[in-house]
Amino acid sequence: MSPLQSYQRLFALTGPLYIAVAFLGRLPLAMAQIAALLAVSGATGTYTAGGVSAGALAIANAVGAPIAGALTDRIGQRPVLLVQSIVGTIGLAALAILTSAHTIGEAWWPIPVVAAVAGFFVPQVGTMARVRWRPISKAGHAEDPRVMDAAFSYEGAADEASFVLGPALVGVVVAFFDPIAALIVAAGLLGGFGTWFALHRTVTLVGPAPAQVGVRARLITPALIILGAIQLGIGMVFGSVQTGTSVLATEAGQPGLTGLLHGLLGVGSVLAGLAVVAIPEAFGYERRLRLFTAGLFVLALPLLAVHSLLGLTFALLGLGLAVAPSMITTFTLAERITPARRLGAAMTVLAAATGTGYAVGAALAGRVADAAGYQPAFAVSVGATALALLLALVGARRLRSEIDRAAAPPGLASPAGPSDDRVTPA
User: Fold this and answer.
1) Which of 66, 215, 328, 402 could form a disulfide with 337 if both were Cys (CB 3.0 to 4.6 A apart)?
2) Alpha-carbon torsion 311, 317, 322, 326, what sign?
3) Of 345, 347, 338, 330, residue with least CA distance to 227
4) Which of 79, 75, 330 is nearest to 226 (CA)?
5) Distance separating alpha carbons of residues 147 and 142, to the nearest angstrom
6) Rounded to whole angstroms, what are the CA distances from 362 to 16, 20, 26, 127, 335?
7) Rounded-to-integer distance, Cα 153 and Cα 160, Å
Protein backbone atom coordinates (compact mmCIF):
# COMPACT_ATOMS: atom_id res chain seq x y z
CA MET A 1 0.00 0.00 0.00
CA SER A 2 1.48 3.35 -1.04
CA PRO A 3 1.47 6.30 1.40
CA LEU A 4 -1.26 7.99 -0.63
CA GLN A 5 -3.42 4.86 -0.54
CA SER A 6 -2.86 4.59 3.21
CA TYR A 7 -4.18 8.13 3.74
CA GLN A 8 -7.10 7.58 1.35
CA ARG A 9 -8.12 4.46 3.22
CA LEU A 10 -7.71 6.20 6.57
CA PHE A 11 -9.84 9.24 5.71
CA ALA A 12 -12.52 7.05 4.13
CA LEU A 13 -13.14 5.54 7.58
CA THR A 14 -14.55 8.78 9.00
CA GLY A 15 -15.31 11.13 6.12
CA PRO A 16 -13.98 14.68 5.67
CA LEU A 17 -16.25 16.33 8.26
CA TYR A 18 -14.64 14.53 11.19
CA ILE A 19 -11.16 15.38 9.88
CA ALA A 20 -12.09 19.08 9.69
CA VAL A 21 -13.76 19.18 13.12
CA ALA A 22 -10.87 17.36 14.82
CA PHE A 23 -8.38 19.73 13.19
CA LEU A 24 -10.22 22.96 14.01
CA GLY A 25 -10.85 21.74 17.55
CA ARG A 26 -7.12 21.67 18.27
CA LEU A 27 -6.47 25.25 17.08
CA PRO A 28 -7.49 26.97 20.37
CA LEU A 29 -4.64 25.37 22.31
CA ALA A 30 -2.16 26.34 19.58
CA MET A 31 -3.49 29.91 19.64
CA ALA A 32 -3.94 30.41 23.37
CA GLN A 33 -0.30 30.12 24.37
CA ILE A 34 1.14 32.64 21.94
CA ALA A 35 -1.88 34.93 22.29
CA ALA A 36 -1.40 34.94 26.07
CA LEU A 37 2.32 35.63 25.63
CA LEU A 38 1.69 38.62 23.35
CA ALA A 39 -1.34 39.99 25.19
CA VAL A 40 0.17 39.83 28.67
CA SER A 41 3.59 41.10 27.55
CA GLY A 42 1.91 44.09 25.91
CA ALA A 43 -0.42 44.79 28.83
CA THR A 44 2.27 44.52 31.52
CA GLY A 45 5.30 45.77 29.61
CA THR A 46 7.47 42.78 30.57
CA TYR A 47 8.37 39.56 28.76
CA THR A 48 8.64 37.80 32.10
CA ALA A 49 4.94 38.32 32.79
CA GLY A 50 4.06 37.16 29.30
CA GLY A 51 6.27 34.10 29.52
CA VAL A 52 4.99 33.19 32.98
CA SER A 53 1.37 33.57 31.89
CA ALA A 54 1.83 31.51 28.73
CA GLY A 55 3.81 29.00 30.76
CA ALA A 56 1.12 28.87 33.45
CA LEU A 57 -1.48 28.13 30.79
CA ALA A 58 0.69 25.39 29.31
CA ILE A 59 1.73 23.76 32.58
CA ALA A 60 -1.84 23.78 33.89
CA ASN A 61 -2.86 22.10 30.66
CA ALA A 62 -0.07 19.60 31.24
CA VAL A 63 -1.46 18.86 34.70
CA GLY A 64 -5.06 18.67 33.54
CA ALA A 65 -4.42 16.55 30.43
CA PRO A 66 -3.43 13.29 32.18
CA ILE A 67 -6.32 13.69 34.61
CA ALA A 68 -8.71 14.12 31.71
CA GLY A 69 -7.06 11.24 29.85
CA ALA A 70 -7.47 8.90 32.81
CA LEU A 71 -11.11 9.95 33.12
CA THR A 72 -11.75 9.20 29.44
CA ASP A 73 -10.37 5.70 29.99
CA ARG A 74 -12.88 5.26 32.85
CA ILE A 75 -16.04 7.02 31.67
CA GLY A 76 -15.47 7.72 27.97
CA GLN A 77 -14.42 10.82 26.02
CA ARG A 78 -17.79 12.54 25.55
CA PRO A 79 -18.55 13.82 29.09
CA VAL A 80 -14.94 14.76 29.76
CA LEU A 81 -14.49 16.68 26.50
CA LEU A 82 -17.80 18.48 26.90
CA VAL A 83 -16.88 19.82 30.34
CA GLN A 84 -13.40 20.77 29.15
CA SER A 85 -14.68 22.61 26.08
CA ILE A 86 -17.31 24.63 27.95
CA VAL A 87 -15.19 25.56 30.97
CA GLY A 88 -12.10 26.16 28.82
CA THR A 89 -14.08 28.58 26.64
CA ILE A 90 -15.17 30.54 29.71
CA GLY A 91 -11.59 30.56 31.03
CA LEU A 92 -10.06 31.96 27.84
CA ALA A 93 -12.73 34.66 27.68
CA ALA A 94 -12.03 35.58 31.32
CA LEU A 95 -8.28 35.79 30.56
CA ALA A 96 -9.00 38.21 27.70
CA ILE A 97 -11.19 40.39 29.92
CA LEU A 98 -8.66 40.50 32.78
CA THR A 99 -5.76 41.31 30.46
CA SER A 100 -7.67 44.10 28.73
CA ALA A 101 -8.41 45.70 32.11
CA HIS A 102 -4.75 45.65 33.22
CA THR A 103 -2.57 48.77 33.14
CA ILE A 104 1.23 48.90 33.21
CA GLY A 105 2.52 49.27 36.76
CA GLU A 106 -0.20 47.20 38.40
CA ALA A 107 0.53 43.83 39.96
CA TRP A 108 0.25 41.22 37.22
CA TRP A 109 0.18 38.03 39.30
CA PRO A 110 -3.61 37.47 38.94
CA ILE A 111 -3.21 37.09 35.16
CA PRO A 112 -1.13 33.88 35.28
CA VAL A 113 -3.62 32.46 37.79
CA VAL A 114 -6.52 32.95 35.39
CA ALA A 115 -4.36 31.67 32.52
CA ALA A 116 -3.68 28.51 34.54
CA VAL A 117 -7.38 27.93 35.19
CA ALA A 118 -8.14 28.32 31.50
CA GLY A 119 -5.27 26.06 30.50
CA PHE A 120 -6.34 23.33 32.91
CA PHE A 121 -9.59 22.84 31.02
CA VAL A 122 -8.56 23.36 27.37
CA PRO A 123 -8.85 19.83 25.89
CA GLN A 124 -6.07 18.00 24.09
CA VAL A 125 -8.17 17.33 20.99
CA GLY A 126 -5.25 16.01 18.95
CA THR A 127 -4.40 13.50 21.67
CA MET A 128 -7.98 12.28 21.96
CA ALA A 129 -8.15 11.99 18.16
CA ARG A 130 -5.10 9.69 18.25
CA VAL A 131 -6.86 7.44 20.73
CA ARG A 132 -9.90 7.14 18.46
CA TRP A 133 -8.09 5.83 15.38
CA ARG A 134 -7.56 2.21 16.43
CA PRO A 135 -11.22 1.63 17.39
CA ILE A 136 -12.25 3.51 14.24
CA SER A 137 -10.06 1.21 12.14
CA LYS A 138 -11.46 -1.86 13.90
CA ALA A 139 -15.03 -0.71 13.28
CA GLY A 140 -14.17 -0.17 9.61
CA HIS A 141 -12.37 -3.54 9.33
CA ALA A 142 -9.20 -1.71 8.34
CA GLU A 143 -6.81 -2.50 11.19
CA ASP A 144 -3.81 -2.64 8.90
CA PRO A 145 -0.36 -1.58 10.24
CA ARG A 146 0.10 0.84 7.34
CA VAL A 147 -3.26 2.45 8.04
CA MET A 148 -2.34 2.91 11.70
CA ASP A 149 1.04 4.32 10.69
CA ALA A 150 -0.84 6.72 8.42
CA ALA A 151 -3.11 7.66 11.33
CA PHE A 152 -0.22 8.61 13.59
CA SER A 153 1.66 10.33 10.79
CA TYR A 154 -1.44 12.34 9.94
CA GLU A 155 -2.10 13.27 13.56
CA GLY A 156 1.50 14.40 14.01
CA ALA A 157 1.28 16.48 10.84
CA ALA A 158 -2.14 17.83 11.89
CA ASP A 159 -0.73 18.89 15.26
CA GLU A 160 2.11 20.67 13.52
CA ALA A 161 -0.28 22.25 11.03
CA SER A 162 -2.35 23.53 13.94
CA PHE A 163 0.79 25.09 15.36
CA VAL A 164 1.34 26.74 11.98
CA LEU A 165 -2.18 28.02 11.48
CA GLY A 166 -2.82 28.77 15.15
CA PRO A 167 0.04 31.27 15.52
CA ALA A 168 -0.59 32.52 11.98
CA LEU A 169 -4.22 33.20 12.87
CA VAL A 170 -3.05 35.00 15.99
CA GLY A 171 -0.72 37.07 13.80
CA VAL A 172 -3.57 38.02 11.46
CA VAL A 173 -5.87 38.98 14.34
CA VAL A 174 -3.08 40.97 16.02
CA ALA A 175 -2.35 42.78 12.75
CA PHE A 176 -5.98 43.88 12.38
CA PHE A 177 -6.98 44.13 16.04
CA ASP A 178 -4.81 43.11 19.03
CA PRO A 179 -3.63 40.01 20.95
CA ILE A 180 -6.63 40.17 23.30
CA ALA A 181 -8.92 39.69 20.30
CA ALA A 182 -6.90 36.56 19.46
CA LEU A 183 -7.75 35.14 22.88
CA ILE A 184 -11.43 35.78 22.17
CA VAL A 185 -11.19 34.04 18.79
CA ALA A 186 -9.54 31.04 20.47
CA ALA A 187 -12.37 30.90 23.00
CA GLY A 188 -14.95 30.95 20.20
CA LEU A 189 -13.24 28.14 18.29
CA LEU A 190 -13.04 26.01 21.42
CA GLY A 191 -16.69 26.56 22.26
CA GLY A 192 -17.73 25.60 18.73
CA PHE A 193 -15.40 22.90 17.46
CA GLY A 194 -14.24 21.48 20.80
CA THR A 195 -17.86 20.78 21.68
CA TRP A 196 -18.55 19.39 18.20
CA PHE A 197 -15.60 17.01 18.52
CA ALA A 198 -16.93 15.86 21.89
CA LEU A 199 -20.32 15.06 20.35
CA HIS A 200 -19.15 13.51 17.07
CA ARG A 201 -20.40 9.97 16.48
CA THR A 202 -16.86 8.53 16.56
CA VAL A 203 -16.76 9.21 20.31
CA THR A 204 -19.07 6.23 20.87
CA LEU A 205 -16.31 3.91 19.63
CA VAL A 206 -14.04 4.87 22.53
CA GLY A 207 -16.15 3.99 25.53
CA PRO A 208 -14.76 3.00 28.92
CA ALA A 209 -12.42 0.03 28.61
CA PRO A 210 -13.64 -2.92 30.71
CA ALA A 211 -11.34 -4.00 33.51
CA GLN A 212 -10.18 -7.60 33.45
CA VAL A 213 -10.20 -9.61 36.66
CA GLY A 214 -6.67 -10.38 37.78
CA VAL A 215 -5.12 -8.21 35.08
CA ARG A 216 -2.89 -5.31 36.02
CA ALA A 217 -2.41 -2.70 33.34
CA ARG A 218 0.69 -0.64 34.05
CA LEU A 219 0.77 2.93 32.81
CA ILE A 220 4.06 4.41 34.00
CA THR A 221 6.94 2.30 32.73
CA PRO A 222 10.62 3.17 32.19
CA ALA A 223 9.93 3.38 28.46
CA LEU A 224 7.04 5.82 28.88
CA ILE A 225 9.21 7.94 31.20
CA ILE A 226 11.89 8.10 28.50
CA LEU A 227 9.35 9.08 25.86
CA GLY A 228 7.82 11.67 28.17
CA ALA A 229 11.23 13.20 28.86
CA ILE A 230 11.93 13.44 25.12
CA GLN A 231 8.59 15.19 24.66
CA LEU A 232 9.56 17.53 27.49
CA GLY A 233 12.63 18.53 25.49
CA ILE A 234 10.57 19.06 22.33
CA GLY A 235 8.10 21.17 24.30
CA MET A 236 10.99 23.31 25.55
CA VAL A 237 11.91 23.92 21.92
CA PHE A 238 8.40 25.23 21.23
CA GLY A 239 8.34 27.53 24.26
CA SER A 240 11.84 28.94 23.90
CA VAL A 241 11.59 29.43 20.13
CA GLN A 242 8.28 31.21 20.56
CA THR A 243 9.73 33.55 23.18
CA GLY A 244 12.94 34.19 21.25
CA THR A 245 10.93 34.90 18.11
CA SER A 246 8.73 37.37 19.99
CA VAL A 247 11.77 39.24 21.32
CA LEU A 248 13.54 39.39 17.95
CA ALA A 249 10.38 40.50 16.13
CA THR A 250 9.75 43.20 18.73
CA GLU A 251 13.33 44.45 18.52
CA ALA A 252 12.91 44.60 14.73
CA GLY A 253 9.77 46.71 15.15
CA GLN A 254 7.45 43.97 13.89
CA PRO A 255 5.85 42.36 16.99
CA GLY A 256 2.77 41.40 14.98
CA LEU A 257 4.90 38.99 12.93
CA THR A 258 5.62 36.79 15.96
CA GLY A 259 2.77 34.39 15.29
CA LEU A 260 3.49 34.15 11.58
CA LEU A 261 7.20 33.57 12.15
CA HIS A 262 6.65 30.93 14.81
CA GLY A 263 4.21 29.24 12.48
CA LEU A 264 7.09 28.65 10.07
CA LEU A 265 8.37 26.03 12.49
CA GLY A 266 5.44 23.86 11.49
CA VAL A 267 5.63 24.28 7.70
CA GLY A 268 8.49 21.85 7.16
CA SER A 269 7.21 19.80 10.06
CA VAL A 270 3.86 19.15 8.36
CA LEU A 271 5.52 17.98 5.15
CA ALA A 272 8.03 15.79 6.98
CA GLY A 273 5.30 14.40 9.22
CA LEU A 274 3.14 13.29 6.30
CA ALA A 275 6.16 11.60 4.73
CA VAL A 276 6.93 9.48 7.80
CA VAL A 277 4.40 6.84 6.69
CA ALA A 278 6.68 6.02 3.75
CA ILE A 279 9.46 4.75 6.06
CA PRO A 280 9.73 0.93 5.81
CA GLU A 281 8.49 -1.08 8.79
CA ALA A 282 11.92 -2.74 8.95
CA PHE A 283 13.44 0.55 10.09
CA GLY A 284 12.67 0.21 13.81
CA TYR A 285 10.94 2.96 15.77
CA GLU A 286 13.75 3.30 18.31
CA ARG A 287 16.18 3.79 15.41
CA ARG A 288 13.89 6.40 13.90
CA LEU A 289 13.82 8.24 17.21
CA ARG A 290 17.60 8.43 17.35
CA LEU A 291 17.77 9.66 13.75
CA PHE A 292 15.04 12.28 14.10
CA THR A 293 16.28 13.70 17.42
CA ALA A 294 19.79 13.93 15.95
CA GLY A 295 18.30 15.91 13.09
CA LEU A 296 16.48 18.08 15.61
CA PHE A 297 19.75 18.98 17.31
CA VAL A 298 21.67 19.66 14.10
CA LEU A 299 18.89 21.79 12.61
CA ALA A 300 18.57 23.84 15.81
CA LEU A 301 22.18 25.01 15.69
CA PRO A 302 21.55 27.74 13.06
CA LEU A 303 19.37 29.54 15.63
CA LEU A 304 22.58 30.53 17.41
CA ALA A 305 23.67 32.48 14.32
CA VAL A 306 20.37 34.31 13.72
CA HIS A 307 20.56 38.12 13.68
CA SER A 308 17.59 39.09 11.51
CA LEU A 309 14.01 38.11 10.75
CA LEU A 310 15.11 36.75 7.37
CA GLY A 311 17.71 34.50 8.99
CA LEU A 312 15.16 33.38 11.54
CA THR A 313 12.74 32.49 8.73
CA PHE A 314 15.16 30.01 7.17
CA ALA A 315 16.27 28.62 10.53
CA LEU A 316 12.69 27.89 11.61
CA LEU A 317 11.80 26.30 8.28
CA GLY A 318 14.78 23.97 8.58
CA LEU A 319 14.19 23.08 12.23
CA GLY A 320 10.61 22.12 11.49
CA LEU A 321 11.73 19.24 9.27
CA ALA A 322 12.71 17.23 12.34
CA VAL A 323 9.98 18.25 14.80
CA ALA A 324 6.95 16.27 13.58
CA PRO A 325 8.90 13.07 12.79
CA SER A 326 10.32 13.09 16.33
CA MET A 327 6.90 13.62 17.91
CA ILE A 328 5.17 11.08 15.66
CA THR A 329 7.74 8.47 16.66
CA THR A 330 7.37 9.07 20.40
CA PHE A 331 3.57 8.85 20.24
CA THR A 332 3.68 5.76 18.02
CA LEU A 333 6.09 4.06 20.41
CA ALA A 334 3.77 4.87 23.31
CA GLU A 335 0.81 3.40 21.45
CA ARG A 336 2.76 0.22 20.73
CA ILE A 337 3.84 -0.42 24.33
CA THR A 338 0.83 0.80 26.35
CA PRO A 339 -2.00 -1.40 27.66
CA ALA A 340 -5.12 -0.80 25.59
CA ARG A 341 -7.23 0.35 28.53
CA ARG A 342 -4.62 2.92 29.61
CA LEU A 343 -4.03 4.41 26.18
CA GLY A 344 -5.93 7.65 26.80
CA ALA A 345 -3.89 8.33 29.91
CA ALA A 346 -0.60 7.45 28.18
CA MET A 347 -1.25 9.75 25.22
CA THR A 348 -2.13 12.63 27.53
CA VAL A 349 0.96 11.99 29.65
CA LEU A 350 3.07 12.64 26.55
CA ALA A 351 0.97 15.68 25.66
CA ALA A 352 1.37 16.89 29.24
CA ALA A 353 5.13 16.46 29.02
CA THR A 354 5.12 18.57 25.86
CA GLY A 355 3.08 21.27 27.59
CA THR A 356 5.34 21.20 30.63
CA GLY A 357 8.34 21.57 28.36
CA TYR A 358 6.68 24.52 26.68
CA ALA A 359 6.15 26.14 30.07
CA VAL A 360 9.74 25.55 31.17
CA GLY A 361 11.14 26.70 27.84
CA ALA A 362 8.96 29.82 27.66
CA ALA A 363 9.65 30.86 31.25
CA LEU A 364 13.40 30.20 31.05
CA ALA A 365 13.74 31.88 27.67
CA GLY A 366 11.67 34.83 28.89
CA ARG A 367 13.93 35.30 31.89
CA VAL A 368 17.19 35.23 29.91
CA ALA A 369 15.64 37.35 27.15
CA ASP A 370 14.79 40.08 29.65
CA ALA A 371 18.43 40.07 30.68
CA ALA A 372 20.24 39.65 27.36
CA GLY A 373 17.85 39.54 24.39
CA TYR A 374 16.84 36.87 21.93
CA GLN A 375 20.13 34.98 21.48
CA PRO A 376 20.14 33.35 24.94
CA ALA A 377 16.50 32.40 24.37
CA PHE A 378 17.51 30.48 21.25
CA ALA A 379 20.38 28.88 23.19
CA VAL A 380 17.68 27.36 25.41
CA SER A 381 16.18 25.84 22.25
CA VAL A 382 19.45 24.22 21.25
CA GLY A 383 19.97 22.85 24.75
CA ALA A 384 16.49 21.31 24.67
CA THR A 385 17.23 19.46 21.41
CA ALA A 386 20.48 18.15 22.91
CA LEU A 387 18.45 16.79 25.85
CA ALA A 388 16.02 15.00 23.51
CA LEU A 389 18.88 13.44 21.52
CA LEU A 390 20.68 12.24 24.65
CA LEU A 391 17.53 10.58 25.98
CA ALA A 392 16.87 8.88 22.62
CA LEU A 393 20.40 7.47 22.56
CA VAL A 394 20.40 6.32 26.17
CA GLY A 395 16.89 4.88 26.06
CA ALA A 396 17.06 3.02 22.72
CA ARG A 397 17.71 -0.40 24.25
CA ARG A 398 14.87 -0.05 26.76
CA LEU A 399 12.46 1.01 24.03
CA ARG A 400 13.45 -1.93 21.83
CA SER A 401 12.88 -4.29 24.74
CA GLU A 402 9.41 -2.87 25.42
CA ILE A 403 8.42 -3.14 21.75
CA ASP A 404 9.51 -6.78 21.63
CA ARG A 405 7.62 -7.59 24.79
CA ALA A 406 4.47 -5.90 23.51
CA ALA A 407 4.65 -7.82 20.23
CA ALA A 408 5.22 -11.23 21.84
CA PRO A 409 2.30 -13.68 22.17
CA PRO A 410 0.45 -13.50 25.53
CA GLY A 411 2.24 -15.42 28.22
CA LEU A 412 5.59 -15.16 26.43
CA ALA A 413 6.04 -11.40 26.53
CA SER A 414 8.07 -11.21 29.70
CA PRO A 415 8.13 -12.39 33.28
CA ALA A 416 5.23 -9.99 33.77
CA GLY A 417 3.36 -12.17 31.26
CA PRO A 418 -0.23 -11.46 30.40
CA SER A 419 -0.71 -9.22 33.44
CA ASP A 420 0.60 -6.33 31.36
CA ASP A 421 -2.36 -6.53 28.96
CA ARG A 422 -0.18 -5.07 26.23
CA VAL A 423 -1.45 -4.00 22.83
CA THR A 424 -0.14 -6.34 20.15
CA PRO A 425 0.62 -4.44 16.92
CA ALA A 426 -1.12 -5.77 13.85
Assistant:
1) 402
2) positive
3) 330
4) 330
5) 7
6) 35, 30, 20, 22, 28
7) 11
For residues 166 and 352, give the distance between their C-alpha atoms in angstroms, rounded to a whole number.
Answer: 19
Per-residue pLDDT of 180-238, as tens digits, reads 999 999 999 999 999 999 999 988 887 665 554 444 556 678 888 999 999 999 999 98
Report how far residue 382's alpha carbon sits from residue 384's, in angstroms, rounded to the nearest whole number: 5
C-alpha span between 116 and 3 (Å, rounded): 40
Q: Of 222, 236, 163, nearest to 389 (Cα)?
A: 236
d(CA 353, CA 62): 6
Alpha-carbon distances, residue 243 vs 377, 400, 424 (angstroms): 7, 36, 41
Distance (Å, rounded) from C-alpha 100 to C-alpha 379?
32
What DSSP line would sit under 120-171, residue for residue? HHS--HHHHHHHHHHHHHHHTT---HHHHHHHHHHHHHHHHHHHHHHHHHHH
Kindly report, residue by residue over 47-94, the tens digit of the pLDDT.
788 888 888 898 888 888 889 988 988 888 999 999 999 999 999 999
What is the DSSP track for 224-265? HHHHHHHHHHHHHHHHHHHHHHHHHHHHTT-GGGHHHHHHHH
* Distance in angstroms (rounded) separating the CA atoms of residues 302 and 320: 12
Q: What angle do CA 233, 238, 244 make, to 5 degrees?
A: 115
Residue of 242, 377, 245 whose CA lies nearest to 311:
245
**Cβ(358)–Cβ(60) below 8 Å:** no
Radius of gyration of the chain, Cα coordinates, nearest whole angstrom:
20
d(CA 309, CA 255): 11
Nearest-angstrom CA–CA distance, 29 and 19: 17
